[in-house]
Write a structure and sequence with these properties.
- The protein is an alpha/beta fold and 327 residues long.
- The chain has helices at 3-24, 32-44, 58-69, 85-88, 122-134, 169-172, 186-196, 210-220, 227-241, 261-277, 285-296, 304-308, 313-323, and strands spanning 48-51, 73-77, 89-94, 99-104, 111-115, 136-139, 142-145, 151-156, 177-180, 224-225, 255-257, 282-283, 301-302.
- The strands form five sheets. A five-stranded parallel β-sheet has the order 2-5-8-1-9. Strands 3-4 form a two-stranded antiparallel sheet.
- α2 (32-44) packs across α10, α9 (227-241) crosses α10 (261-277) and α11 runs antiparallel to α13 (313-323).
């Protein structure tokens, strides 16, 4: 492996990524972590679940990213009366020739915003499973490939439980990242107030094409992950399943189910994508630690005892990261 050659390759892509950041910053103030996580999901070919109270610009962030990428964008507002056909499409009867013709749903796009995804019943949520995992949709007897790139960005409200449905574990596991969106800082909120209390609109220009995203994904394959970093990733994931093996006895009664093998894959991909965003051609343990909470928080199922003690999945991950030796 030619590390110098890969470093030059990554440096060239870093300039493109910086232009993308600047374009997004025309609309989105602060929330640098959110932008980073969206880019990691985009480059890593995964999906992202955003959780936060209303009004934190989750929808704005996703729409702005689509505009800056010049990609097709669709939004689905999930409601209790939504049907699977409203998401993937259905067959329409043509009276002229007596045949059924497919009518493709909004899932046939590049960036799909699933707004308040936990408001739809399980049958609608499961309609996204094939699209998220296989990048294809079956309507009737025919399977249709989805456009590339294809990325699902879903939002959910953590505080309002009336009229909501818990996401199925199989679907939650399909999301590469679950990002918690917090309130902006006082300085950022002042900038938001000064900019958006006037009737001025920022024009977001496309600065990256679908082909350039595919190029970025090819560069990601060249980002080096040392064997020791790989072992560190395995230790973190295994510690969620067998905490006693890693001298984390206090976590054993708190974890009902540990992270799935997808966590290992996504932690490796996300750590290398994090390194790429920072202009490096190699992943470090710090990249793993920075992204571990977003990869693991929705994959660790806690016991009732842990929930009664108000222990969160983030706290579990924090304890694991604080205990395991860093290579």
């Amino acid at each position: 492996m030619d590390l110098q050659k890969n470093t030059d390759l990554v440096s060239g892509q870093a300039q493109i990524i910086e232009r993308l950041r600047q374009e997004i910053a025309k609309v989105l103030i602060g929330q640098e972590k959110l932008v980073d996580r969206m880019l990691i999901a985009l480059i890593g070919g995964g999906h992202i679940l955003l959780e936060g109270v209303p009004g934190l610009a989750k929808t704005t962030a996703i729409r702005t990213l689509a505009q800056a990428l010049g990609l097709r964008f669709q939004r689905i507002s999930f409601t209790p009366d939504l049907l699977p056909a409203d998401v993937v499409g259905t067959l329409i009867y043509n009276q002229k020739d007596g045949t059924f013709q497919p009518k493709q749903g909004p899932v046939f796009t590049n960036l799909l915003l699933a707004d308040e995804i936990n408001r739809a019943p399980a049958k609608v949520q499961s309609a996204l499973l094939e699209a998220m995992q296989e990048r294809q949709v079956t309507i009737g007897d025919t399977t249709y490939p989805l456009p590339a790139p294809f990325l699902v960005m879903a939002t959910q409200n953590p505080i309002e439980q009336k009229g909501t449905y818990p996401l199925p574990e199989a679907q939650v596991d399909r999301f590469m990242l679950k990002c918690l969106v917090d309130y902006p800082s006082r300085d950022d909120e002042r900038r938001i107030m000064n900019r958006f209390t006037r009737r001025q609109t920022a024009e977001v220009q496309p600065v990256m094409s679908g082909a350039e995203i595919e190029t970025l994904r090819g560069v990601l394959d060249q980002v080096y992950c040392d064997e020791k970093v790989g072992e560190y990733i395995l230790d973190i994931v295994m510690a969620t399943r067998e905490p006693k093996t890693f001298k984390l006895e206090s976590l054993a009664p708190r974890i009902e189910m540990g992270a799935s093998p997808r966590a290992t894959l996504y932690l490796n991909i996300a750590a290398r994508a994090n390194a790429l965003l920072r202009g490096r051609a190699y992943a470090t343990p710090q990249d793993v630690k920075e992204i571990a909470r977003d990869v693991l928080r929705h994959r660790i199922m806690l016991t009732y005892e842990a929930e009664a003690e108000n222990i969160t999945a983030d706290a579990v991950v924090e304890q694991i990261l604080g205990t395991l030796p860093v290579p």
